[in-house]
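Student: Send me a single protein entry containing the residue sequence and its fold in token form, directly below this note:

Tutor:
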Amino acid sequence: MSCLICLLLPLALLLPASAQSPVPIEKEPRHRLKFENRHVRVFDVLIPRKDTSLFHTHVHDGVGIKLTDARIRDEPTGGSPDDITVTRGEVSFALRPSPLTHRVSNIGETPFRNIFVEILPPAGAPRGAPPQALVAGQTLALENERVRISRLVLAPGQSAELHTHVLRRLAVAVSEGRLAVEVPGEKVRTIEFKPGDFQWYEAGATHALKNIGSTPFEAVDIELK
């Protein structure tokens, strides 16, 4: 038996990497599921330097928010690898008319961290409701038929006036920050954020925000249409 194992082991090492059976995204160990409801699933993805994910399959549309500067290799099954430089705060949207199976390698010298928001069908927004106007400190990053994505940057002491979010949304912190959150009829709350922290809001949420920290605060809002 030991001789047979010795003969088979070199053959196993010669098998292509794509021989690994792909797993669903939630079974890929570097994709840590942090939140789920009937509209979204939120994965905190962390791939250390020189590490590689398993081949895994994406079925639904999704939004990626990069939290680190990194260099990665995206290797789809049946396709050519693509080496990509990503930057902290970068936002991307992936439309999935058909499933994608791939793996991601960290080929740089820094960890790769990405908040991946999987948008589950149906999108679930109130039909016919347009997004609200952007507020102070907010700029449009990306918009299509599924989502509107905006970036909020508040300098120390800067406020975003009282406003109502018409659509359901997920807010993701890109930086550390300390915000005072004012909701009509409630006591003002202070919230400490770290990169990758997120909050889910149902349609109709109303609040005002103020950066009461000593550094600029940056976050990304994903509104579901």
